Amino acid sequence: MGLKSNLHSLKEKYRGTKMAPAFNALHTFLYAPNETTHSGSHIRVVDDLKRTMNTVILALVPCLIFGMFNAGYQHHLALGDIGRADGFFSAIFWSWDNLVIGLWKVLPLVIVSYGVGLAIEFLFAVIKGHEVEEGYLVTGMLVPLIVPIDTPLWMLAVAVTFGVVIGKEVFGGTGMNILNPALTIRAFLFFAYPTWMSGDKVWVHGAVARDKAIAAGQNIDAISGETVLGSLAQNHEPAYSVADMFFGMIPGSVGETSTMLILLGALFLIFTKIGSWRIIVSTVLGALTMGLIFNFVVSQGWITESSKFFGLMSTTWWHHLLIGGFAFGAVYMATDPVTGSQTNIGKWYYGFFIGFISILIRVFNPAYPEGVMLAILLMNVFAPTIDHYVVQGNVKKRMKRLKVKTA
Amino acid sequence: MGLLSKKDTKLITDPLADNNPITIQVLGICSALAITAELKASIVMAISVLFVLGIGNVVISLLRNIIPSKIRIIVQLVVVAALVIIVDQVLKAFAYELSKTLSVFVGLIITNCIIMGRFEAFALGNGPWRSFLDGIGNAAGYGVILVIVGFFRELLGSGTLLGFPVLGNPIPGEQTGLYAFGYENNGFMLLSPMALIVIGIIIWIQRSRNKDLIED
Q1: Which residue of B has its CA nearest to A187?
Q2: In angstroms, rounded to a whole number, what is the distance separating the alpha carbons of residues B34 and A353?
Q3: Is B173–A216 a contact, with Cβ atoms under 8 angstroms apart?
C-alpha cells in the first residue's frame, strides 16, 4: 500500500490549495479513499460512479484488442501480403505483424483521447474548484474505437476539446450533459473533416496515402478498403461473408466491427446491471422493424434495382445488425445512463426509435450510410421529453385510482 | 467629449457591450447565423443595418407625434421597407456578387427584431438626435458580434480573411503555410449550427467576465 499512502499524504499536503482537486482525483482514481462523511448517516459502497465506469471500460477492452489486430489485418490484406482469414481463430488474423500495426496506429489515438480529455477535465475542475469528475473515463475509451484508423491526431485533439467543452462542461459537467460526449466528438469530426470520416479510403490504414500515391502516378497494387455499408450504398454486392461481418473481419472504425465481441460486451454489461437491457433490446427491435419494412417494400416491387436506395433496402433485414456501427452504438452509446431515458417505459420508446431512425438514415443517406450516431444524438435530445410523458402518464393513472377510492 | 454628453455617449457604448442586442437581448440571431460564413458578407450586413437603423430611428422619431398608435407598426414597416429597398438596390448596382451571397437576407433586414425593437422601445419616445445615437449604437453592437463571428468562421472554415488566403495554400500537392503541416479547414465552421455555437461561446465569455449579466 505504499502508493496509496503516498498519494494520501500528497493529497493532504495540497488540501485547500488550488491544485487540490487534481491530487484528489489521482488518489480516488486508483483507490477508494479511507475517509467517511462527517455529518448525517450515509451508506458507503465502493460501487460508485468510478466502478461503473471501470466496468464499461472492461467491457470495451475485447473490442479494443480485436480492433488492433483488425487494423493490421486489413492493412496487410489490402496490400496483398496475406490471404483471407477463415474463421475467428485463424492464425492469419491473430498474428504478431497485425498487432504491431494495430499498436502503432491505435495506441496514439487512445493516448491523445485520454490526454486531451482528462487535461480539460482537470482544467475545469481547477478553475471551478470542484472535484474532477470521472465522466471522461468511458468517453476517452469510446472515442478511439469509433473513429477511422488513420484519423490525424490533431483532428482528434480538436474534436475532443470541442466535445468535452461544448458537449459537457458548458452544461455543468458529468451527469448534466444533454448529448453523449463521445458521439458529439464523432459528429464534430464528421461535419468538420468529412473527407477523413467517410468514403471508401479512410477505413484501412494507409489507404489514403496509397490513393494519393496512385493519383501521383505510382503503380501500387492494392484493393480499396470499402466498408460493407459503403458498397451496399452504391448498389454493389459486398465482398464479405456474413461470418466475416459477425466476427468483425471487415473494414470499419477501429473497434466497432466485431458484432460478436460487442454481443459479449453487452451480456457482460447486462449481467453486471450497468447497461440497460431494455434499451439494447428495444434498439435491436427498432432496427429489425425498419429492416423488415424496407424488405417488404422491395418484395412488393415498389422499388427497383435502378433506385439508388436498392442496395441498402434489399439488405436482408437482420444483416443490418451486423454491419456498420449499429451494434456498437446500441450497446455502448445508447445505454449511456446520463443521456438516455430514465424511466423503464421510456427506455423502450427511446431504444426503439434509435434503432428505427438508424436504419432509416442508413438507407436514405447514401453519402454517409451510418445513421446510428445521428439517431442516438437525436434521441438524446428527446429522452427528457419521453420521460416527462411517462411520468405524467403515471401521475394521471394514480390520480384516477385515488378518485375511484375516495368516491 | 464636447460633442456628446455623458448620457448620449452611453447610448452608443451600452449596446456595444453590456446591453448588446445579440448576446444580451438575443435579437437578430437569424441573420447572424445565416450570413456570417464570410467576413465580407458580415461587414456589409453590419453596414446595411447601421444605415437602416440609424436613418429609420430618426424618421420614426420625427414622426412620433403624428403616428396614430393603432397603426404604428404598419408605419414602421413602411419606413424600414423603404430603407431596405435602397440598400438592396445600392448593393445590386455596386456589389452584385455580394448581393447574391447575401440573397434574401438583405430583404429580411425588414424582419430583424433589433430594428422594430429600437423603433418601439426608443424612437417612439425620444428626440431625433438621441434616437440617431441609439440606432447607431445598437447597429454597431449587432455589427461587432457579426464581424467577430464572421472572422472566426471564415478563418477556421475556409482559411481566408476577406478572401485572402492567410493560412497558406490548401490545394493538394502544392500546400504552403499551415497546410504543409497537415492542417485542414474545418467544414463544420461553414455550417450554421457552428455560428450558433460561436455566438454561445461569446455569450459565455462575456458573462463570465461580467457576473452582473448572469440571470438566474
Answers
A1: B188
A2: 31
A3: yes
Average pLDDT over chain B reads: 85
- Chain B interface residues (partner A, CB cutoff 8 A): 172-173, 182-184, 186-189, 191, 197, 200, 204
Nearest CA in chain A to B182: A152
Chain B CA closest to residue A151 = B182
**What distance in Å separates the CA atoms of residue A90 and residue A276, rounded to the nearest whole number?**
34
State how far the Cα of A67 lies from the Cα of A256, in Å rounded to an integer: 8
Q: Which residues of B touch A152 (CB under 8 A)?
A: 182, 184
What's the pLDDT score for residue A389?
94
End-to-end CA distance of chain A: 66
Phi, psi of A324 (to 5 degrees): 65, -160
Would you call B184 and A191 a contact, using CB atoms and an 8 Å cutoff?
A: no
Contact between B188 and A188 using a beta-carbon 8 Å cutoff: yes
Q: Which of B153, B188, B191 to mutate to test the interface with A (most CBs of A within 10 A)?
A: B188
Residues 6+ positions from A161 with CB-CB distance below 8 Å: A116, A120
- Higher pLDDT: A241 or A2? It is A241
User: A11-20, pLDDT tens digit by residue?
Assistant: 777 776 777 7
Cα–Cα separations (whole angstroms), residue B28 to A12, A195, A280, A341, B214? 52, 34, 43, 35, 20
The pLDDT, as a whole number, for residue B1 is 46
Residue of A nearest to B203 (CA): A170
CB nearest B186 (choices: A192, A212, A216): A192
Q: Which residues of A touch B204 (CB under 8 A)?
A: 170
% of chain B at pLDDT higher than 90: 19
- Residue B213: phi, psi to the nearest 5? -80, -10
Model confidence, pTM: 0.83
Of A188, A248, A166, which Cα lies nearest the Cα of A374? A188
Residue A90 CB contacts under 8 Å (≥ 6 apart), including other chains: none
Cα–Cα distance between B127 and A280 in angstroms, integer? 66
CB nearest B187 (choices: A158, A191, A216): A191
**Cα A99 from Cα A92, distance rounded (Å):** 11
CB environment A77-93: b (16+ within 10 A), e (fewer): bbeeebeebeebeeebb
Nearest to A253 by CA among A321, A190, A165, A299: A190
Q: Tell me the one-letter amino acid at A122.
A: F
Question: How far away is chain A from the Cα of B165, in angstroms, using its nearest Cα?
Answer: 19
User: CA-based Rg of chain A, rounded to a whole angstrom?
Assistant: 23
* Residue A194 with chain B: CB contacts under 8 Å: 187
Distance CA(B170)–CA(A196), nearest Å, equals: 15
0.90 surpassed by complex ipTM:
no
The arithmetic mean of pLDDT across residues A157-186, rounded, is 88
pLDDT tier at A132, thresholds 50, 70, 90: confident
Which of A44-58, A84-98, A104-118, A321-335 is predicted with the least confidence, judged by mean pLDDT? Answer: A44-58
pLDDT at A108 over 80: yes
Domain ranges of chain A: 48-221+230-237, 275-384
